[in-house]
C-alpha cells in the first residue's frame, strides 16, 4: 500500500441557538467554530505506529506486530460494539469504567487506524480548541483521523481537488464511529459540523446542513467553570416538570429564536449585509440568554461575561450546556464597527477567562499544504 | 350638617406579576403596598376650605363663598365630564393642557369635596409613597379623600366599626372619580387596591379582589430613573410586532407566572408557610424579571438592583412600567431567615436609590385614632 503523508484540519462546534430546547423536541442551530484541530500523518517504515497528542500529554508508540492480533479481531466484527471496545480497552490496559480524554483518544485512534490503515505511521495532532468544554474537540479529532486515514490510503482524493459530498459522507461516517467510542451515544451533530462546517439545523435527531451561511466574527470565551451536561439537562427537565405552564412557552420561544436566526442568516447570504441584520442577531442572543437563565442553566460567571461585553456594546450568550462552560459574543464586521475586541478580550482575561477571537460558519474538514498552515502549528506538529 | 373630624390612611399599589402582559390580555396581580397615605380632616368654622399637601409643596385656602358658584355648576352636571373639568381648571387658573401633580391633586380635591361636602375644613395629607413612581400615590390620595368626606358627613360609619363591602364600594367609586380627574382614563386597579388592600387579579379590564393573601415583607426600591409608561408600552408592542413567534410565548409564560403565584399565595393562607413557598415565589420573581427584560422594559438600574440584592441572597424584579422606576425585593419572614435587610438597604442607597422596608398584601383604606398613627406622621399632619 502506497501511503501519502497528509495534513488535515477540522473545526470545532458551537451551539448558536437551541441548546437544551433540542432535548425537548425544538430546533437547535449548530455552527462550525473556527478554532481548529490539525492532524499530520506521516508514513514511517520502521514498523512503528505512533500517536502524539500534546494537548492532552499523550504520546504512545506501538510495534506493528503488537497490533496484529487486534486487526484480525476487528476484521471478524460486523460493527462497532461493546465487545470490540472491551477488547481495545484490554489492549491498552484500561479496566475501570470511566475513560479519561487520553484513553478515549487512543481508543478512537486505534479503532479508525485498524479499520482503515495498517502500516507504520506517526500521527501528530494539535488543537486550538479547549478539551472537554463542549466545543466538539473530540469530534474535530475524529473527523481529522477519518479524513487522514481515508486520504493517506487513497480512498478520497488529495488536496488538489475539493472533496465531494460522497467523500464527506465517508469521512463523517468514520468520524461518527470515533465519536461513539469516545462518547458512547453521541448525537452526530459534532462530527457533522466538523465535516461540513457552516451551520446545521438539528431537530428531533435529524441533522440538516444549511446550504449557505455568512461567516460571523465572534469572541469565544471559556469561563473555565466546570459543569456536568448530564446534571444541567436533568435540571432543565425538573424545572419543566415543576412549572410546565411557565416553561413550555419558553421552549417554544427558543424554538422561534432558532428559526428567526436561521432566516436572518439566510437573508444575509442573498442581500447586502447591514447593521439591521446584526441588530436582530444581537437581540436574539440577548433574548435567548435570558431564556437560558429562566430554564436554569445560567451561572454567575456567564452573567459576568454578558455584563463585561455589554459594557463594550457587545452581546453574549452561553453556548452548549451552560452552568459555566463557554459563551459566544457576536462581533460586527470590521468595516461596520469600531474595533472593541482587544479591550474586551483583556477585560475577559482579567476575569480569569480564556478568550479567543474567531469565527463561526466557516469551512468544515480541509486538507492543507504545510505552507498554508500557521507556522506555530506546524512547529508543534513537527516537534514529535 | 354635623362634621366629624377624621383620620384615614390608604395603601399604595405594586404590580407583583403581569405588568405589560396585562395590556395584551394576560393576568396581572396587583397588591397593596404598605407605604401609606395619611389624611386628616378637621372641621373649621371660619368659612375657610384649606388643603395642605406638603409632599408636593401644595398649600391652598379658599373662602367658602368663592366655591359656591362651582357647587351650583356641579349640581347641574349629570356626571364627571370634560366640561366640568374645564370649569374646575378655569377656577384654579390653569389653562394649558398638561397637569402637574399639584394641579391635578387640587382638581381631584375640589371635585370630591364639592360633590360630598360643602362646609369649612382643613384637609392635610402626608404620604410615605414617592409621587409619580407608579406606586398608586394618586389613588391612595383619592381613596383617602373619598373615605374622609364620606366618613366626616356620616355616610359611612366611624372607626369603631369596620367598613362593610357596600361602604368600600362607595369609597372606591368616588376614589375612581378622583383618579379620572388625575389620570384621564385610569384602569381602576389602583383605587381598588387602595380601597380593598390585599391582592387583586386584573384580567381584560375585570378586577377581582382575592379573598385572602399572606402579608409578604419586601424592600421597595425606587431607582429614580425617570421613564414614560406610554413609551414603554409602545416599545413592548413594537417588539411583539417585530418578533411575534418569539414574544407571544413569553407573554403566555408571564400569564402562567401570575396564575402560579396566585395559587401559591392562596396555599400560604391555608397551610403552614414553609421555605418551599418562598423558594417558589423567588423563582417566579427571577423568571418574570428575565421575561420583562426580554419584552424590552429592563434597564441597567434594575439590573443593578437585581445584582445587589442577589449578592445578599434576595430576589428582585421591576414593578410597574419598568425602564427604571421601582423594583420589589422579596424578604422572608424574620423567623425563617437571617436579617439581611439593613445591609441590603445600605447597598441600594449607596447606588443612589431610595429604599423602604415595607410589606405587600396588607389592609386597604383604614380609619385611625390619632394615638395609633406614628408620631412623626401626626406631627406633619398637625403642622398646618
UniProtKB/TrEMBL annotation, chains A, B:
| One example of a Gene Ontology biological process annotation | cholesterol biosynthetic process
Known InterPro entries for this protein?
Answer: GHMP_kinase_C_dom, GHMP_kinase_C_sf, GHMP_kinase_N_dom, GHMP_knse_ATP-bd_CS, Mev_gal_kin, Ribosomal_Su5_D2-typ_SF, Ribsml_uS5_D2-typ_fold_subgr
Keyword vocabulary terms for this entry: ATP-binding, Cholesterol biosynthesis, Cholesterol metabolism, Cytoplasm, Kinase, Lipid biosynthesis, Lipid metabolism, Magnesium, Metal-binding, Nucleotide-binding, Steroid biosynthesis, Steroid metabolism, Sterol biosynthesis, Sterol metabolism, Transferase
Enzyme Commission number, as recorded: 2.7.1.36
Please name the NCBIfam families in this protein's record.
mevalon_kin
Protein family: Belongs to the GHMP kinase family. Mevalonate kinase subfamily.
Q: What is this protein called?
A: Mevalonate kinase
- Please tell me the species this chain comes from: Poecilia reticulata
Q: What does the record give as the organism's lineage?
A: Eukaryota, Metazoa, Chordata, Craniata, Vertebrata
Amino acid at each position: 500500500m502506497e501511503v501519502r503523508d497528509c495534513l488535515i484540519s477540522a473545526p470545532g462546534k458551537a451551539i448558536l441557538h437551541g441548546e437544551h430546547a433540542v432535548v425537548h423536541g425544538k430546533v437547535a442551530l449548530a455552527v462550525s467554530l473556527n478554532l481548529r484541530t490539525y492532524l499530520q500523518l506521516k508514513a514511517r517504515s520502521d514498523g512503528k505506529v505512533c500517536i502524539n497528542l500534546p494537548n492532552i500529554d499523550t504520546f504512545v508508540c506501538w510495534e506493528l506486530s503488537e497490533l496484529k492480533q487486534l486487526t484480525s479481531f476487528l476484521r471478524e466484527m460486523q460493527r462497532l460494539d461493546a465487545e470490540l471496545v472491551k477488547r481495545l480497552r484490554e489492549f491498552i490496559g484500561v479496566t475501570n469504567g470511566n475513560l479519561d480524554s487520553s484513553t478515549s483518544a487512543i481508543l478512537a485512534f486505534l479503532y479508525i487506524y485498524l479499520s482503515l490503515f495498517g502500516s507504520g505511521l506517526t500521527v501528530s495532532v494539535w488543537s486550538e480548541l479547549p478539551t472537554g468544554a463542549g466545543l466538539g474537540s473530540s469530534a474535530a479529532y475524529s473527523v481529522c483521523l477519518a479524513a487522514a486515514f481515508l486520504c493517506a490510503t487513497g480512498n478520497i482524493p488529495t488536496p488538489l481537488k475539493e472533496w465531494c459530498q460522497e467523500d464527506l459522507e465517508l469521512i463523517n461516517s468514520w468520524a461518527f464511529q470515533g465519536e461513539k467510542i469516545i462518547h458512547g451515544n453521541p448525537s452526530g451533530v459534532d462530527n457533522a459540523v466538523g465535516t461540513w462546517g457552516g451551520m446545521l439545523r438539528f431537530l428531533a435527531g435529524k441533522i440538516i446542513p444549511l446550504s449557505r451561511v455568512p461567516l460571523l466574527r465572534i469572541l469565544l470565551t471559556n469561563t473555565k467553570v466546570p459543569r456536568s451536561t448530564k446534571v444541567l439537562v436533568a435540571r432543565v427537565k425538573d424545572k419543566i416538570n415543576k412549572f410546565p405552564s411557565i416553561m413550555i412557552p419558553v421552549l417554544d420561544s427558543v424554538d422561534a429564536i432558532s428559526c428567526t436566526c436561521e432566516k436572518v442568516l439566510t437573508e444575509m447570504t442573498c442581500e447586502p449585509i447591514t447593521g439591521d441584520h446584526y441588530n436582530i442577531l444581537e437581540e436574539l442572543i440577548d433574548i435567548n440568554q435570558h431564556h437560558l437563565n429562566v430554564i436554569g442553566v445560567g451561572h454567575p460567571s456567564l452573567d459576568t461575561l454578558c455584563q463585561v461585553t455589554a459594557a463594550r456594546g457587545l452581546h453574549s450568550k452561553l453556548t452548549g450546556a451552560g452552568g459555566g462552560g463557554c459563551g459566544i459574543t457576536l462581533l460586527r464586521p470590521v468595516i461596520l464597527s469600531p474595533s472593541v475586541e482587544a479591550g474586551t478580550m483583556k477585560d475577559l482575561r482579567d476575569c480569569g477567562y480564556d478568550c479567543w477571537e474567531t469565527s463561526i460558519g466557516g469551512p468544515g474538514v480541509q486538507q492543507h499544504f504545510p505552507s498554508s498552515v500557521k507556522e506555530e502549528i506546524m512547529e508543534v506538529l513537527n516537534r514529535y
